[in-house]
């Protein structure tokens, strides 16, 4: 028989709290480990690229060793069609999306929680307005909106990431609004108002920090995945980072010219990097969602 | 006001009073009308909402264009650049200087089906966008079908049998599929089709859209359906909905009676989730179509948008953004209609 957590005897509660990790589903643990590995790899590689600690010069051409395979001549992942070291270029390619991706996350979270609090806490007309805005943003396919901005202004990664952040905001807003409505059902907000707490304390401390931080963490990991996807797609389309500066998208694009000749590796290596990284961020978000918000099944 | 007849205490709506006049006010008709009237009101409200959103879309598109640096008169007046000359030309072309004036002229032109002419080709944008939209619709609708064909077996299998050894691998399979970069998958698809099936899939976009062969159609559709990055979300959503419906009490009753579960669970467990997921994923498919059309040289909206973004061809990209928004709004409108018709209770709330 299922008993509410707060109804359990104190020893049992302490026991469960001490062994909280035992309650985590095995698959979630697997996803979590994989995701954390990927995230730490990305962060470490970002700093390696930032301080220029690369095995080879990423723009130095080695015309004797063009498109060699894994491990040849000291190139751990081989070289591309100009004999440039693939591993160094892939590590440096993280520069292309890491900081812009963080910008997109910050915009999505701050703007999204602003909208969510507006519509959830105040409700009424404001809620209608926010819903209209969310539907309006959802009406545009993200890539079309980005192409519109690229055509109107210039293909700059920070403009693109502002759009990615703005288009992610409605998701965050909807989640926070749902959470606030749930808290309202439990008379949580009403009682904190009755206690005389100032509004900013209720919103920032009690709603956003105590109750919504898990939502924000999950959305941050998912947002990074989407930022990577957008950056690689746009670099592929030629609106992102330009050669010779490496980015995973333009590496796939450059390597794909040689794919028909049977040289898979120069485009497959960055493509696999994209896949494993996006998978890592998505699985991490999913595992955190199950662990922090409770598994649904 | 003779249509608003007052009989007793109850106020009769126009349709109901019409039914009264036609001697149709049997209990059955009354019951039906009680359902139909709120549904009609809700449907009209949805239509108005869609119109309001399209108005907002036009405003957003125009604002981005308005804020863009550079103006179109500097091209016309390459010789003399004085302010008075610019003013003169602008006035002779009926061009308003104010923001609102420009916007209203533009909006009225759009409502007449005039999206201007392309800066690059000089052709009418409206006709080009319409034909491109039809091509893209072919691609995306077929690709959605592929996605659903992949997602349904996984979702139904994992939700009907909740704990099987295949559960984890199938879920991970869906994740891996949706994390694959679409452009790379497209190149691998071309490689496989040329080397294994000895067929070169690029060849459309040369103006022979009528005799498009089945293979030319098939490969881009398969690639977009697999790689648009939505498979895992579709699987997750369908799984959640199907297992929720399967736990409902009316399904348990149907089971106990020996009635078909699929028939009773169809509307809520399959029809509504499908229409909802399709309508909410239209933007993603249109976004993915940009890349697939680029790789396969498909003469659709995505390729046109890419070309227009390269050339800063404002009228074209604006037309495409509007067309894409109209498609998204239409999709969500259709979903709302299905929802209202399947679940009339929703319009009473």
In short:
Chain A is built from twelve helices and no strands. By secondary structure, chain A is mainly α. In chain B, helix 2 runs antiparallel to helix 14, helix 6 crosses helix 9 and helix 8 (182-195) crosses helix 12.
Structure report:
The complex is a heterodimer of chains A (297) and B (349). Helix content of chain A is 68%, strand content 0%. Chain A has helices at residues 10-18, 26-50, 86-93, 98-122, 124-138, 142-152, 157-185, 188-194, 199-209, 213-237, 248-256, 265-293. The longest helix of chain A is centred in the middle third of the chain and has 29 residues, at 157-185. With 349 residues, chain B is mostly helical. Chain B folds into two domains: 79-114, no CATH class; 125-348, MetI-like fold (Orthogonal Bundle), CATH 1.10.3720.10. Chain B has 14 helices and two strands. Chain B has helices at 14-21, 27-67, 73-76, 83-92, 99-111, 125-160, 167-179, 182-195, 214-227, 231-246, 249-257, 261-296, 301-311, 314-342; strands spanning 6-7, 10-11. In chain B, strands 1-2 form a two-stranded antiparallel sheet. In chain B, a hairpin with a 2-residue loop joins strand 1 (6-7) and strand 2. In chain B, helix 9 packs across helix 12 and helix 12 packs antiparallel against helix 14 (314-342). Chain B is flat, with a radius of gyration of 26 Å. The relative contact order of chain B is 0.12. The interface between A and B is large, with 44 and 59 residues.
């Amino acid at each position: 028989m299922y008993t509410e957590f707060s109804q359990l005897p104190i020893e049992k509660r302490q026991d469960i709290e001490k062994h909280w990790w035992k309650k985590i589903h095995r698959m979630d643990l697997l996803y979590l480990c994989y995701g954390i590995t990927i995230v730490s790899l990305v962060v470490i590689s970002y700093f390696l690229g930032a301080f220029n600690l690369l095995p080879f010069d990423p723009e130095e051409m080695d015309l004797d060793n063009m498109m060699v395979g894994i491990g040849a001549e000291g190139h751990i992942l081989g070289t591309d069609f100009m004999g440039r070291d693939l591993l160094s270029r892939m590590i440096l390619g993280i520069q292309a999306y890491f900081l812009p991706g963080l910008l997109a996350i910050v915009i999505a979270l701050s703007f999204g929680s602003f909208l969510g609090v507006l519509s959830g806490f105040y409700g009424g007309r404001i809620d209608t307005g926010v819903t209209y805005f969310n539907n309006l943003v959802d009406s545009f396919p993200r890539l079309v909106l980005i192409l519109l901005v690229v055509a109107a202004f210039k293909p700059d990664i920070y403009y693109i990431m502002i759009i990615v952040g703005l288009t992610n905001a409605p998701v965050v807003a909807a989640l926070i609004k749902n959470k606030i409505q749930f808290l309202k059902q439990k008379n949580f907000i009403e009682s904190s108002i009755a206690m005389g707490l100032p509004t900013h304390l209720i919103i920032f401390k009690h709603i956003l920090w105590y109750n919504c931080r898990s939502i924000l963490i999950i959305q941050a990991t998912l947002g990074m995945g989407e930022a990577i996807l957008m950056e690689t797609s746009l670099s592929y389309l030629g609106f992102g980072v330009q050669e010779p500066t490496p980015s995973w998208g333009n590496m796939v694009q450059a390597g794909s010219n040689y794919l028909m000749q049977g040289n898979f590796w120069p485009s497959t290596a960055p493509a696999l990097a994209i896949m494993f990284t996006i998978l890592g961020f998505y699985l991490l978000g999913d595992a955190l969602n199950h662990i922090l918000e409770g598994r649904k099944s | 006001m003779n249509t608003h007849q007052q009989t007793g205490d109850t106020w009769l709506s126009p349709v109901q009073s019409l039914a009264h006049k036609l001697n149709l006010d049997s209990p059955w008709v009354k019951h039906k009308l009680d359902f139909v009237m709120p549904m009609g009101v809700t449907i009209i409200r949805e239509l108005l909402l869609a119109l309001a959103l399209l108005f907002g879309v036009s405003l957003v598109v125009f604002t981005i264009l308005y804020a863009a640096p550079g103006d179109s008169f500097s091209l016309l007046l390459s010789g003399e650049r004085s302010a008075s000359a610019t003013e003169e030309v602008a006035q002779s072309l009926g061009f308003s200087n104010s923001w609102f004036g420009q916007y209203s002229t533009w909006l009225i032109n759009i409502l007449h089906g005039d999206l201007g002419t392309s800066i690059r080709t000089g052709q009418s944008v409206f006709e080009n966008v319409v034909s491109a939209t039809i091509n893209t619709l072919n691609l995306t609708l077929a690709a959605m079908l592929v996605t659903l064909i992949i997602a349904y077996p996984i979702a139904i299998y994992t939700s009907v049998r909740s704990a099987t050894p295949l559960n984890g691998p199938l879920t991970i399979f869906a994740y891996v599929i949706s994390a694959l970069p679409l452009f790379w998958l497209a190149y691998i698809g071309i490689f496989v089709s040329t080397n294994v099936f000895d067929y070169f899939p690029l060849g459309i976009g040369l103006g022979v859209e009528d005799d498009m062969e089945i293979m030319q159609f098939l490969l881009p559709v398969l690639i977009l359906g697999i790689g648009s990055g939505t498979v895992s979300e579709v699987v997750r959503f369908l799984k959640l909905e199907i297992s929720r419906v399967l736990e409902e009490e009316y399904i348990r009753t149907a089971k106990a009676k020996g009635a078909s579960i699929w028939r009773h669970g169809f509307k809520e467990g399959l029809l509504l989730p499908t229409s909802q997921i399709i309508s909410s994923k239209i933007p993603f498919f249109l976004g993915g179509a940009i890349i697939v059309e680029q790789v396969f040289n498909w003469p659709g909206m995505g390729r046109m948008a890419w070309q227009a973004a390269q050339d800063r061809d404002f009228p074209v990209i604006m037309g495409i953004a509007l067309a894409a928004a109209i498609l998204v709004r239409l999709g969500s409108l259709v979903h709302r209609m299905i929802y209202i018709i399947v679940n009339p209770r929703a319009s009473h709330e």
